[in-house]
Amino acid sequence: MKSAVSCLALLVVAAVRLEAGEGPALLVRPTLSDSRYIEDRISVQAVSGALFSQTRLGPDVPDFNYSQTNIRLGWMLNTPDPGNGWLAGNWEALIELSANGIFEGSGNIMIGPSALVRYNFVQPDWKVVPYLQAGLGFVYTDAYEDKGQRAIGQAIEFTPRAGAGVRILVSKDWSVDVEGLFHHVSNAGLADRNLGVNAVGGLVGATYHFEKLWQ
């Protein structure tokens, strides 16, 4: 009985301290129930950067370098369980619209949608939340119009990708994001020219987390 009373007293004291503004700030406690990573929260992310094709992965093709801007809508699929140790986190589904400007190589643009799945590594008291992600999409590009190259053979190309990044929590709803990305472009043999492009690069941007739209 005394133990129960003591525990209750400690909980009351902790609640009073939090109400008074003492204790950990909410923005560094992503496993709490009011966190941005709980199930069904929605986020919007915008990232931009550049990718470069000379990776020595796959066939040797001429330089194909491009800027990339991605707008992503994310949906948290579950709430992190802090009992999972350093693997604690949650799954996030995202849809993306990607716009690419080719600044070296054939063509001028690539634009199209993708679907991605991401795992966020969420720990108490961390201001930085790492993540891993992978996805698949397609783009329209005018690079195929250059008949002198063998990498891009048609207007519609597939774009599988994988990457890793970190979200730096700067306020209750905002984070600054840094991401590394591997990006492949090819047409799966649907056209005669299909050597493909393997590019790597970096993106920076920000994410806004909305409150839950439903309870």
H/I helix tally:
1
| Integer average pLDDT | 84
Walk across the major sheet and give the strand order. Answer: 1-2-3-4-5-7-8-9
The largest sheet, given as strand count, sense and whether it forms a barrel, is:
8 strands, antiparallel, barrel
The portion of residues forming beta strands comes to over 45%
Structural Rg: 22 Å
User: What is the architecture at the second tier of CATH?
Assistant: Beta Barrel
pLDDT < 50 runs, ≥5 residues: 1-34
Shape label = elongated
User: Could you say how many structural domains there are in total?
Assistant: 1
The CATH topology annotation reads as Porin
Number of strands: 9
End-to-end Cα distance, whole Å, is 36 Å
The portion of residues assigned to helices is under 10%
- The level 1 CATH classification is Mainly Beta
Structural class: mainly beta
Order of helices and strands: HEEEEEEEEE
Question: How would you describe what is shown here?
Answer:
- The chain has 215 residues and is mainly beta.
- It has a single domain, classed as Porin (Beta Barrel).
- The protein is built from one helix and nine strands; from the N terminus they run H-E-E-E-E-E-E-E-E-E.
- Strands 1-2-3-4-5-7-8-9 form an eight-stranded antiparallel β-barrel.
- Strand 4 and strand 5 form a beta hairpin.
- The longest helix is centred in the N-terminal third of the chain and has 18 residues.
- It is elongated, with a radius of gyration of 22 Å.
- The N terminus is likely disordered.
